[in-house]
Amino acid sequence: MAAYDPADTHEEDRNQAVNEFLHRLNAFDAERQSALEAGVPALGRLAKIAGGDTGQASKVRRFLLGLYNGPRFPFVLTELRGLDKQLFEDCMSVLRLDARATIKEVHQYFTNGSDLFEKWAKLESKR
Description:
It holds the Pfam family DUF7673. By secondary structure, the protein is mainly α. The chain has helices spanning 6-50, 55-68, 85-101, 113-125. It contains 4 helices and no strands. The model has no long low-confidence stretch (mean pLDDT 89).
């Protein structure tokens, strides 16, 4: 019968901790990749809508501006209730992109994104 060796227990604990860390890291990477794959195209679709002159365009614009600079452009979440299903789903995908991918700020996915978002801010200030 082998003698008890506390070093073996510590080694097992370390191995278990490393395996758990790697599992979580892989899960995070998969979630980030999924957020990118769904969120980037959704952001493009929402940007096209945000340039419009409808009630839904204004809601989408305010949502995107809230992600761009929340303290400057507070967004009332209940406004999402007024969006059609696809726009709502696109907003959720973009929110997930912004929260989970965290590769870029939302305006950085566009060429001259700061200018684009400031243009939307001017449109909203006229409403």
